[in-house]
Amino acid sequence: MRTQVGIVGAGPAGLLLSHLLAGAGVDSVVLETRSRDYVERRVRAGVLEHPTVELLREVGLADRLDREGMRHEGISLRFDGGDHRIDFADLVGKGITVYGQQEVVKDLIAARLGDGGDLRFEVTDVTLDGLADAPVVGFTGADGRREELQCDVVAGCDGFHGITRDAYDPQMFDRTYPYAWLGILAKAAPTHHELVYANHPHGFALYSMRSPEITRLYLQVPPDTDVNNWSDAQIWDELGTRLAARGFTLNEGPVLEKGVTGMRSFVAEPMRHGRLFLAGDAAHIVPPTGAKGMNLAIADVRVLAEALTTFLRSGDETGIDGYSDTCLRRVWRAEHFSWWMTSMLHVPPESDPFGRRLQLSQLRYTVTSRAAATTLAENYVGLPHGVSP
Ligand code: FAD
Ligand code: DHB
């Protein structure tokens, strides 16, 4: 079997890349180890940056997003028992959209299949060869047959635990954090219209939502936490404590989903090895506090789709040669922002009164200085694609 671009992984990066390439007349095959049902149900990110939404609109993927997505023009930072709003609309004239990652994935899969795209779910034993000049992706299909995909280039969009990054020896930069997030999805109507990031002496808590009926909530917990050791009642109780503020009530309801997510910062450089190009979580991870992971994956594949299209049409290698450096500039900006938000909002396990005073000072400065609030707002809503400070 032959295709121009072999794409490993059907997360937001792989699926959007396939869609963008199809729009430019470049064909691809997407290989995914999980089932369609699994990737469509996997609850993860919820915040779409302004440039992400603009791109999805530009490429015809925003019908449902525009109908069902929740537009937000600010967030609140909650600390010392008080609420402090960061007004994105006033500070930077833009906002964010709350729309579940699995909804983006559903929309992408529907669009690809509607356009006759080739998506293979439930494949196993994906292997890579010939990455210097003639890549071959081996895999076993859902029917158990071993197949080979000859391609011009391979896109490694298989997430942090994928196999494509192992095909070479990139330089790795990483940082782990002494906490994780316990996240729940609850059938409870949101009582507040925007996200709340709370710094409480017990630890961080985040108030988010998915729809007018569904609340999404997170608690900072120790990294080795077993989710089964937290009863629903304990979770609600702790959320109530950490999110407490005058005039705020938490609406409780049945817990539909719960899980624990580790937190790390990670970058692999460069993001290219011969004819292999990494994109999204395969190349970099951010802690979730800045809501950047999916947005970065989407920014990567926008650059990649353009570079590959030029290369495959004309043989011009300028775009593919610049791919890694171009993406890494945005990646490191997001790494810094995510690390900064994480450090400002989480409570380290060891009591550190000096660090606590620094955190509170930084929080007060962020909410009272227009310059500092603008820095947060500009990064949170997302720097325009193509702008690389
Ligand atoms: P993935 O979504 O991980 O997709 C990779 C795909 O490759 C998967 O489907 C996987 O099954 C498949 N795969 C793996 N190995 C193989 C293989 N060998 N062969 C074939 N396929 C393979 N980001 C935000 O932008 N905003 C947020 O608000 C946000 N909140 C988050 C909250 C949580 C709790 C978590 C866990 C993450 C959050 N993120 C957020 C991060 C975001 O979910 C990821 O950055 C995003 O999924 C990256 O997309 P991706 O396509 O690169 O990788
Ligand atoms: C959500 C996740 C995040 O990581 C974040 O920073 C904000 C919101 C969410 O799942 O809604």
From TrEMBL:
Domain of life, per lineage: Bacteria
InterPro entries to which the protein is assigned, alphabetical: FAD-bd, FAD/NAD-bd_sf, PheA/TfdB_FAD_monoxygenase
Signal peptide: none
Cited Gene3D superfamilies: D-Amino Acid Oxidase, subunit A, domain 2 (3.30.9.10), FAD/NAD(P)-binding domain (3.50.50.60)
Transmembrane segments: none
Keywords, comma-separated and alphabetical: NAD, Oxidoreductase
Pfam families listed in its UniProt record: FAD_binding_3
Domain FAD-binding as annotated: residue spans: 2-338
Protein name, UniProt field: 4-hydroxybenzoate 3-monooxygenase
Organism name: Pseudonocardia xinjiangensis
